[in-house]
Amino acid sequence: MTSSQFNHAATQAIGDITKYYDNIAERPVLPSVAPGYLAKILPQSPPTEAESWDKIRADMESKIMPGMTHWQSPDFMAFFPASSSYPGMMGELWSAALTVPAFNWLCSPAVTELETIVMDWVAQMLALPECFLSKGKGGGVIQGSASEAIVTCMVAARERFITRTLEKEGIVLTEEQKEDRSAEIRSKLVALATKHTHSSTHKGANIAGTRFRSIDTQLSNAFGLQGRELRATIEKLKSQGLEPYFLTVSLGTTNTCAVDDFASIAEVKRDYPDIWIHVDAAYAGVALVLPEYQHYCKHFSAFDSFDTNLHKWLLTNFDASCLFVQNRRDLTDALSITPAYLRNEFSDQGLVTDYRDWQIPLGRRFRALKVWFVIRTWGVEGLRAHIKHHLKLADLFVSLVKSRSDLFTIITPPAFALTVLTPDSDTLTRANEVTKQVYEIIDKEKKVFLTSSLVGDAYAIRVVSANPLASEEGIRKAFRLLVEAAETVLDVKK
Ligand code: PLP
């Protein structure tokens, strides 16, 4: 493809994309294809001869689109959203155009320097404590996902715990003895989370090669972890000869957007400073742009790391998971290995940041560009208005649900534009059966996409109004469909 052919094709693609967005509400949010549909309509082998762009472009609409779930549709209220915006897309386009796997500063100084600047902007926007900014010992790095951020921190936490233990033991060891003793310590390490924490912490512990335990939390505390529950778990594990070394606390769990009790957990951390505490705010963290949520941040200076995905709720295209640490040395001590070919005078003199030492992969994408474009296009006030709009839609949804308290129960307090409800019924078993049937009707109709989940023992339906194109009309439609389905299942006379 020559420059002029690219110019033509890209102009057409922009036209196709804007048309797609302008008319997205008219497409069914969920596809109707059967598994294996694509293999039946695509050739089994790659083309021997070059194909025209026109032909490839036509296949986008005829072959790919029928198999797409339209996450940007206003009828998408499932999971958590995956944000998209035109400035975000422009960032992706430029990143693809420049294609620099900027693992160190020298690879492209602008990539590293812009990332440091925008991460400091994000930290300020979210009112994170100053210790997470780059001007001190901390700083931010853009990761691909919240799961990646957790594994990265877990490895740093593991190594920090082992180093501190060896220092406390104060015995002079040969390299081999040190390796053996480190392996012994590692075998006792336990990562902690609650039953409601995202599964990425358990997966991270598997990857980091340590144990994992989950702590029970109570519905009466909206499933948020309390300091006393944490303390009891730590004491129990220690009495068994095990060493808790990592804890994920949540600002917005996946099922119900539960928030752990940061104040009492921070007190426990004072007694156990070697346990790394990571704040997983993958989805809800961006709500901290609003001053009314910033009271949570005052406890974060007791914790080691914080992560939020701008690509979930803040208009930035996938992927932009913003990880902040209090002490960047914790990451670089664990992750920095410098073979000769990566050495250069700037890194050797410690003049620059090399983000390869803050992450698992070596190469990295120019993700800071889209974050920069988004923040500048909206401004902090614009981003606040964006979040507020979704919270208002959630308020509307909650008031609609409450207006039919004969049909529905909201099972945990609505939070961060997420409502979790069940159709009403006298016993839990009956309620679960009814909820399943209501969900199946909604799922089969494909007019709106919701997710179901198990909350404690209750089978529940989740409705999220945080999609960039979420609208009052969409919310009212989802509610109407839920009412119709519940009335059908409960056989209510209309
Ligand atoms: N944490 C929470 C609370 C989540 O809801 C999710 C995913 O939805 C994750 C972590 C994992 O996110 P990622 O896909 O970025 O790894």
What attributes does this structure have?
single chain, 494 residues, alpha/beta, Aspartate Aminotransferase, domain 2, 2 domains, four-stranded antiparallel β-sheet, 16 helices, 11 strands, 46% helix, binds pyridoxal-5'-phosphate
Describe the structure.
- By secondary structure, the protein is α/β, with parallel strands linked by helices.
- It has 16 helices and eleven strands.
- Helix 8 links the parallel strand 2 and strand 3.
- It is globular, with a radius of gyration of 25 Å.
- The model has no long low-confidence stretch (mean pLDDT 96).
- Pyridoxal-5'-phosphate binds next to helix 6.
- The site of pyridoxal-5'-phosphate (PLP) has 15 residues, from helix 6.
- It comes from Aureobasidium pullulans EXF-150.
Write a concise synopsis of the structure shown:
With 494 residues, the protein is α/β, with parallel strands linked by helices. It is built from 16 helices and 11 strands.
What's the number of domains?
A: 2
How much of the sequence lies in strands comes to: 5-15%
CATH topological fold name of the largest domain: Aspartate Aminotransferase, domain 2
**Which structural class matches the secondary elements?**
alpha/beta
For the largest sheet, list the strands in their spatial order.
Answer: 1-7-6-5-4-2-3
H/E series: HHHHHEHHEHEHEHEEHEHHHEEHEEH
Mean pLDDT over all positions: 96
Backbone shape: globular
> Over the alpha carbons, how many angstroms does the gyration radius reach?
25 Å
